[in-house]
Amino acid sequence: MARISVLADDLSLTEPCLIEGFPGVGLVGKIAADHIVEEFEMTHYGNIYCDSVPKVAVYQEDNAKLHPPVRLYADEERDLLVLQSDVPIQPAAADSLAECLSGWFTDLDVMPLYLSGIPREKEQGHVPSLYGLGVGEGIDLISQAGIEAPSETGLVSGPTGVLLNAAVESDRVAVGLVVESDPRFPDPEAARVLIKKGIEPLADLEVPVDDLVDRAEQIRQAKERLAKRMQEANEESTQARPIGMYQ
């Protein structure tokens, strides 16, 4: 059973865009989500509880307050929500989360952006490619933002795949963004592409990313342990992968 505990019910949101940041390949979604929360100094809007989510408490640098591992942040001025997770999420937990979030999405008229990396070995200086996926009006939003459709047949797995599947099943508007990512290490460069070429035009935002690029090595080191855990638990890892025409 999953539930949302709203902490900042005084915030007013109108058809907000939600950026999902579950850990996955290259940790691109998490790096992007964490950066946006920090850059905009977003308000801790609420917590998401689910029986299948690891029962851990999270603390942050220079702050004694404890938090659950899956949280929501909000920015009233930008009509923006970010889902932040500090732990890998099993598909079973994502199933429960999808059921919990669906009603809440309807109540707030949320437009979700689901983020994923597709493993690609990259050469020095290569700019990662970004692809868009959509359900319902999400397809039009991708086209209007000038984001290319994928160049090969594939699937999105892990918790993000579960949430996208729920959107397809219920015919609820949703957008998926897939960026080429380093499968071995945290990939701030891919997260930058995700923000500038995907999140910005779709959510009508302008997100400073100089700090994200300048601190790339520091971010890699900070996220290295979580990235290793994601490699060891493929079923918990949000990722897109090609499947080819014949299986």
Instruction: Quote the beta fraction.
Output: 25-35%
CATH superfamily: PAC-like subunit
Q: Major sheet: order of its strands? A: 1-3-6-7-2-8-11-9
Number of strands: 12
Uncertain residue segments: none
Q: How many DSSP helices? A: 7
Number of domains: 1
**What is the end-to-end distance?**
35 Å
What is the share of helical residues?
Answer: 25-40%
Give me the secondary-structure category.
alpha/beta
Radius of gyration (CA) equals: 17 Å
Classify the fold: give the CATH topology. Rossmann fold
Compressed to H and E, one letter per element, the order equals EEHEEEEEHEEHEHEHHHE
Envelope shape? globular
CATH class, named: Alpha Beta
The major sheet is characterized as: 8 strands, mixed
CATH architecture: 3-Layer(aba) Sandwich
Mean pLDDT: 86
Structure, described:
It is a single chain. This protein is an alpha/beta fold. The chain has a single domain (2-6, 13-242), classed as Rossmann fold (3-Layer(aba) Sandwich). Helix content is 36%, strand content 28%. It contains seven helices and twelve strands. It has helices spanning 28-39, 91-108, 138-144, 158-170, 188-203, 210-214, 216-232, and strands at residues 2-6, 17-21, 43-50, 58-60, 63-67, 70-75, 80-85, 111-119, 130-135, 154-157, 174-181, 239-242. It has an eight-stranded mixed β-sheet, sandwiched between helices. The chain has a two-stranded antiparallel sheet with strand order 4-5. A two-stranded antiparallel sheet has the order 10-12. Strand 6 (70-75) and strand 7 form a beta hairpin. Helix 1 packs across helix 5 (188-203). The longest helix is centred in the middle third of the chain and has 18 residues, at 91-108. The chain is globular, with a radius of gyration of 17 Å. The mean pLDDT is 86. InterPro entries: Proteasome_assmbl_chaperone_2 (IPR019151), PSMG2_sf (IPR038389). This is Proteasome assembly chaperone family protein. Residues 227-247 are annotated as: Disordered.
